[in-house]
Design brief:
By secondary structure, the protein is mainly alpha-helical. It has one domain (2-243). It has 9 helices and no strands. It has helices spanning 2-21, 29-60, 65-86, 103-127, 129-156, 161-172, 174-188, 193-215, 222-243. α2 runs antiparallel to α5 (129-156), α4 (103-127) runs antiparallel to α5 (129-156) and α5 (129-156) runs antiparallel to α6 (161-172). It is globular.
Amino acid sequence: MTLLLILLSSLVGGVVSVLLAATVLVVRTSFVDRALPRLISFSTGALLGAAMLGMIPHASRSLPVSTVALVVLAGLITFFVLEKLLVWRHCHKHDCDVHAASGPLLLLGDAFHNFVDGIVLAGAFVASTTLGLAAAVSTVAHEVPQELGEFMVYLRSGYSRKRALVLNSLTSLTTVVGAILGYLFLREMRAVGPYLLAFAAAGFLYVALADLVPSQRGRTSLRLALLDMILLAAGIGVIALVAHSH
């Protein structure tokens, strides 16, 4: 039953993200540019909520707080190194200076990122169904703006819309691969579950604070600032409801 939930969550999450990203096929680019920052605000809240309200507290039930803190710190450093070596951080703007002419590199980074998401999802579901659902919601929440941003990067790199959609669909399948391998690994080594949850929480925190938050900086109006804060709170609230529903 757990494996079925993991497979469904990873597959549905990937399909939903790609389908929403494909809205750029029928929606004006200018509208997507305006909506993307709002999606990112919600995603930031969902990631922070999953890490701080779900993963870290759950890991702390089995490990000393000091150990959880060390694992989270090690995770943050690891993701920082991965970002530097693999250009893992994803752009959320179609005119990103880092990736504008680097579609293939972004494709590899996306596949790796989705693979890690699958492992995180499997670890969360093995720990508890409630935690798994919270991880699934937060994963979809941050995948949607990520896939939208990457779709636009592919288009800017010269890919056709059809090819960009196919590439996004293929890379989303690596989430399923990561979920299956993660499930098989975790079933054999349940003792590492709390460590992986703390490490995964570091990944969520890093994406939220090192990628999504900086992408929101810049001049804005009071109305948009208030809307972003409301959406941030909504993202946290959704995770809180899922995490404490049982």
